[in-house]
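Example S7 (structure tokens).
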């Protein structure tokens, strides 16, 4: 009784009827408080679970040529995860993928930057590092410019995802068929950065995939599969970083999702790192047809779901 702020003397002084009324009211307040706390705890645990799962999806699909935006949008629609399915949240957890790429390629990035600096000092414009830096810098511009101009009019729906998933699957299959795959990493030129950067602009459409567009373009240019994937990651890194910073700025205004966002970023980082390591090893000995067939199946499944009314556009 002391926990409810009462004792026997106060009940007697209030009178039996009034005492019971006050006691019952206090009991209801205490019960409502416990229920509210349980609801908040349950909601937080649910949000943390959803954030962890979305981080897994982001990490796996961002760096494989299958489109993270497509999978996150479809997944959140299917399970009706409205709050964490907002674009600002799924954009924010891309930070995990950015950190994973930087960490995985830290030695190559350091060698490229230091080599590029030496080339600038010595005016050795034919150095491999200099050409790589210039190619990445110039190749980043098309996606940034076009993305900025079209940021408010680009469609985001399941039908567009399905169409671009199928189209990019066909283009990747064609690149696998006709690409010569004779050029290694030391054979990269500035023009490769420009052309792959132009190809990257297709990734502005949901379902196209940033890594899918750059990998496909690089294969068309005759790069070896592993070289194409590595160059795809490096060229896409500035665009992914800038786009993530710009698009996720709204997430910082929602203090209630900061903890789930942190969980999503950590989850995204872990699975992005694993995805990069796996893909580079896989492409040393295998082709990209597994991604072609997967994208065709993914796009076809979405179209079927839309026609049957199982998924809302």
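Recovered sequence:
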């Amino acid at each position: 009784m002391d926990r409810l702020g009462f004792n026997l003397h106060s009940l007697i002084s209030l009178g039996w009827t009034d005492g019971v009324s006050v006691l019952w009211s206090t009991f209801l307040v205490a019960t409502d408080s416990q229920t509210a706390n349980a609801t908040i705890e349950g909601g937080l645990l649910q949000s943390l679970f959803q954030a962890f799962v979305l981080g897994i999806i982001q990490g796996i699909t961002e760096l494989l040529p299958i489109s993270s935006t497509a999978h996150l949008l479809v997944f959140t629609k299917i399970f009706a995860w409205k709050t964490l399915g907002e674009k600002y949240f799924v954009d924010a957890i891309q930070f995990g993928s950015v950190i994973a790429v930087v960490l995985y390629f830290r030695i190559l990035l350091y060698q490229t930057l230091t080599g590029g600096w030496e080339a600038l000092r010595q005016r050795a414009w034919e150095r491999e590092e200099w050409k790589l830096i210039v190619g990445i810098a110039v190749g980043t511009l098309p996606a940034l410019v076009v993305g900025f101009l079209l940021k408010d009019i680009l469609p985001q729906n399941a039908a567009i995802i399905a169409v671009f998933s199928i189209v990019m699957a066909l283009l990747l299959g064609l690149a696998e068929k006709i690409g010569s795959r004779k050029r290694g990493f030391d054979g990269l030129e500035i023009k490769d950065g420009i052309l792959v950067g132009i190809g990257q602009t297709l990734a502005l459409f949901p379902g196209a995939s940033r890594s899918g567009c750059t990998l496909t373009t690089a294969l068309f240019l005759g790069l070896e599969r592993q070289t194409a994937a590595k160059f795809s990651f490096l060229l896409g890194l500035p665009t992914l970083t800038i786009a993530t910073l710009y698009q996720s700025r709204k997430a910082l205004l929602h203090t209630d999702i900061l903890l789930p966002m942190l969980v999503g970023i950590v989850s995204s980082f872990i699975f992005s790192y694993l995805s990069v390591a796996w893909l580079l090893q896989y492409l040393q000995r295998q082709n990209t047809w597994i991604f072609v067939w997967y994208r065709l199946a993914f796009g076809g499944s979405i179209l079927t779901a839309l026609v049957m009314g199982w998924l809302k556009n």
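Notes on this example. The two ends are 56 Å apart (CA to CA).
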